[in-house]
Amino acid sequence: MERRNRKQMTRRIAALLSLALLFVNCTTKEKESPEKIATEPEIKITATSSMNASIYTTAHKTDLKLSETGSLIFNDFKQPLETEIDVLVDPSKQFQTFMGIGAALTDAAAETFYKLTEENQDKFLEAYYSQEKGIGYSLGRTIIHSCDFSSGSYTYIEEGDKELKTFNIDHDRQYRLPFTKKAIEAAGGELTMYASPWSPPAFMKTNNNMLQGGKLKPEFYQPWANYYVKFIEAYEAEGIPIWGLTIQNEPMAVQRWESCIYTAEEERDFLKNYLGPTLEKAGMGDKNIIVWDHNRDLLFQRASVILNDPEAAKYVWGTGFHWYEDWKDGIPMFDNVQNVNEVFPDKNLIFTEGCNEGYDISKIEEERLAERYGRSMINDFNNGTVAWTDWNILLDETGGPNHVGNLCFAPAHGDTKTGELTLTYSYYYIGHFSKFIRPGAKRISSVSSANSLLSTAFVNADGSVVIVAMNQSDTPLEYSITMNSKTAKVDIPGHGIQSIVMSD
């Protein structure tokens, strides 16, 4: 009898314990789930296929440059044939939140800017930073002392000053600081700025040279981390807020210009043991740190090593990448962007640099230059990228200045002899995104039925929908836009790009 009672009592106790555990687990899940599945709320769509839809077009060998070229008339959906081209947009499927588009405000850009006429300086600022009259840049990258697109190598300290007692940014006061301030003013007083170093000072490196690669000596990990803090403090004292930074520009490239090599493990350890804690100690824990800052080819490997380490990952806002991996076979590796987005969905992706190399003024209007921007931006956004940064916002008539002869194209070139300003097709192609897709927008589902026509789509915070379509072929195309069971026909010129803006 006692034995039976003990068994019953044991069962009751076990049941009560199970209930208690179940209650605890449920309570825990209720507390944890918002953090685990936290997403920004969907944007309510105000634009529908029955509302206003304006078309803006840029096309090579025409006068069309972000020109309004008509409006759309939507009809009831009709099943498209395989011979027809259809862009299917589903605004109910929303993805990453868009941060912005911009470019690097380098020494080269600043020097060129001040050699333009005052009229063209104003034209330049309006062209890039006015949303109404220009293309509405909202993002900027700056450099931590010199890079290849500087007139010479320099740092902010005297050589050998490991305690940074001589730190000052006086070099930047001639061109880059006033240029950056003008850009911020032209952007309405706000410009999201992040900074990147190309190399530590020579004495901190294994090759005792800012150029030709080399590595950061372990004994200088802490002084170099302190250097970032000094830079941020100095720039913010000038009224230039620094939103974030990358750890190292192109950390796997030995270049004839400023460069420094970090393996994935070295970048991880520098971040978690030195840079991250140093920023936090300085009250800069809110600065957004971007890792990698190099090409798409090794993007996944670098992200895996750093982001799979919880102590390093906690300091990381996102992973940055460039587009120069196509030197291998001419094919961009967009799938690697997608893979990082899928494996690390809680971290951001940002395109931090791209330009067309091998400057030749006779080729400045070639369609391939502009289409490289369009192709990259569409694919990068469709694979989860939240922000996109061009390289030099402005260069001179030689594709510089550059102290090692690494001359490149830019979307805008200034002639330092005449003071004239030229806006290339690349500028207008970028503008099809930056002018109409605004910070805070969310990407929505967009699929094209033909390889010749690329597309992406976003919904802005005000509910307006923006569809960008690019024709990679030589011939004009007719395509349909289908949304909410309605369809409209659109004509696009050969080697053209369009923004379709739908609003109430």
Tell me what you see in this structure:
This protein is of the alpha/beta class and 504 residues long. It has two domains: 52-96 and 444-503, Golgi alpha-mannosidase II (Immunoglobulin-like, Sandwich), CATH 2.60.40.1180; 99-436, Glycosidases (TIM Barrel, Alpha-Beta Barrel), CATH 3.20.20. The protein is 30% helix and 25% strand. The protein has eleven helices and 21 strands. The chain has a ten-stranded mixed beta sheet with strand order 2-1-21-18-17-16-4-19-20-3. An eight-stranded parallel barrel has the order 5-6-7-8-9-10-11-12, surrounded by five helices. The longest helix has 35 residues, at 2-36. The radius of gyration is 26 Å and the shape is globular. It starts with a helix and ends with a strand. The model is unreliable at 1-38 (pLDDT under 50).
